[in-house]
Amino acid sequence: MKLFAFVGNSNTGKTRLISQLVPVLKQKGYSVAVIKHCAHGFELDTDGKDSWNFNEAGADTIAMVSPERLAILSYNQDEPSPESIAVKHFESPDIVLVEGFKGDKSIRKIEVLKKGISEKIESLPEELFAVVSDFDIDTDKSVFQPDQINQIADKIQGSVIKRKSSIALHIDGASIPMNDFVQKIFTNAILGMVRSLEGINENPARITLSLFMEGEKR
Hints:
Structural class: alpha/beta
CATH class of the largest domain: Alpha Beta
Radius of gyration: 20 Å
Shape: globular
Helix content: 25-40%
CATH superfamily of the largest domain: P-loop containing nucleotide triphosphate hydrolases
């Protein structure tokens, strides 16, 4: 799973760019998820509606299900990282396109500039992956015009390795880094136990294990 954050000022075209990239990347055979950062909040549950009533009653998480859609409303004490959101809620996408989260240093940034609105690169060089701009800009990173969707998709594809085995550890919402040796131990131990169970696919695509400590608040 590879994350790319599209950052820049409002009205530079980040949402439109992501919306155009999704079908192109899917045509290339990748599964794609999108995360949007709403710095000023957002409303999905309206006063008086069922989800609002459940929240008022104290529910921590609410799922709204219909034949066509599934929406999960989770009420957080602290803002989760894009990586933790993807691991918890998405089915292991190849590519996650993130709008915003410019302060997250762990994600490669694609900065979107627009004449008269945002004309200066603000991302740190070590975080900057590419620039999308409707005017000439001096940088050693790849620069694309906003309408060069196929070229931007090719750039993203060039840094994405097709899905391989990986494992992620989150404790109380915090992502815990593990080196390759520790990941291999976890993977082999879990696979060994899972494959000993009856009626289990010998080569599962994804395994999710949740451990709740007895007596602890959760």
